[in-house]
Amino acid sequence: MLFEDTYRTIEKPAEGQFRDRGSKFLAYAHPVAVENELKNILAHLKSEHPKANHHCWAVRFGIDRSVFRINDDGEPSGTAGRPILNTLLSRDITNILVVVVRYFGGTLLGVPGLINAYKTATEEALKTALVVDKTFNDIYTIEFDYLQMNDIMKIIKDDNLSIISQAFDNNCSIQVSIRKTQVNQTLSKFNKLPGVVVKYSHTL
Prior knowledge:
204 residues; alpha+beta; 5-stranded antiparallel β-sheet; 4-stranded antiparallel β-sheet; 5 helices; 29% helix
């Protein structure tokens, strides 16, 4: 079975809201690539809503349904983070963080009411979001002699690679992005060139 290298995510941040019996639920959806992005987004929302009662969230990465984190932030267990995550799973959206900020309206909603509120707020944010298809890419640095420039650039053009950075001198290097399903084919072309060094960097 071939590795699946495409996924659905949102192009840019989106917002939605839901109200129930005085309580206000504000949902904020953000595209994220790595976990260390969460801290800044959560800190920003908490500074924007310092008087909110709860900042509940769920994040999902990759296409594996087991790569996620949820936080109920004081709500009864399973009534906030899980409904947010389930909405992301049902829409098959990943590399995304959704934070739902709740202002308590004075009336208890009960477990079914909370689950519905966090789910609906998340759905409202996703309705306004632009969902896009993206690919998982491996980033490689190609090191080569200046005289090999034409050969290197031909492979980059033929395989439709994206150049991330480049440095040209007597010894040159180019950092390129290669689709996961295309990696073996492209690297074999680079490796056939004498003296060329190919170094894996990371995956996006």
